[in-house]
DNA-binding response OmpR family regulator
Amino acid sequence: MQPKTLALIDDDAEYSEFLTQFLQEQGIAVSRFDDSNALLAAPEAFGFDFYLVDLMLPGVNGVELIKILRRRTDAGIVVVSGRLGPEVFREVITAGADMYLVKPVQFEQVSLAIAAVQRRVAKPATADAAWKLDRAAGELVVPDGTRIQLSEADRQLLECFAQAGGEPVTREALLNKLGREVPEGESDDGLSATIYRLRRRIERATPTLVPLQSKSRVGYVFRAPLQVI
């Protein structure tokens, strides 16, 4: 089993080019980033199905990048790096990576590692992992029991995601739900900031992974069961 989309974050241009070609031949849509900050600045930064991460990167270092990714996504993360040592392995796995491969490594081994991790992370969520939107209380109920007070904008957004049933919701639909005009050009009239504030409110309240992710060139998706009560 292979992911549909993958972000490759590595500043070795030649290695990245050939690995990208190899993975694309297997039907994986690969996006290359030679700088961790470039990934984090991309609209789809947290919407990839899988991440291959080097540790020695311009911008945010690899370990910190893994920590950021793990706060925003449950996608597979495999480290492919030349750094050695048990302390490096411990640091990487503790940060949230699923597997650690040491360069030089054959592309076939990278592919096998991706498939092995993808089999685990692609398992469907269980019924008891449902999130709940309590309309009367104006609260989001996390699967661990935490209740998070919502603003009116938060509630409107979550109702959109609940109605979508796990499917992506376009930016236009979200803006319409918020009663905002759909802008022309690149601006999204503050939607990204609204989504960011909602994510941060949830992250501060619970260690549970926030399933709210961006969907490249589409909008956003809530990748967990969400019920309105």
Summary: The helical segments are 13-24, 36-41, 62-72, 86-95, 107-121, 152-164, 171-177, 191-205.
